[in-house]
Amino acid sequence: MNRTKVLSSYLNLLRTEKKVFHNDKRALEHVMNLTRIQFRENQNEADNTKINEMISHANAVSDFLTNDLIQGVRKDEKTIQLKFDENTKSYQQYEFVNDQPPQRKKRGKIQIDDEPTTCCGGGCGKPMLSNNSEKSTCS
Known about the structure:
By secondary structure, the chain is an alpha+beta fold.
């Protein structure tokens, strides 16, 4: 009896994954591989309570994917459209536009002149003399 329950939950989960991720091949392959790996790792489990827990977990995951998962599809650089399935609990179409924080502006390189044109940096603004015999001092 447990074998039929396990196979039924396994096949149900795989069908749900195919239905939910049919447009996203990379996600579909990843999720199906995870499901296969987890079922294979636990195929030799003999404890009936653990088996029933795992079956209920697989059924809960299948229900979550069917009823609660919302997928986002990028329409352009700043817009993501959320796609709801007809089984999703809150069936509405939402669209997020410009919801990402603004990107920092890149600063250009600061140009340093070979010869300073103002004083030593003290803030007086007096021009530096080109000959080194006289020093400019801030007052």
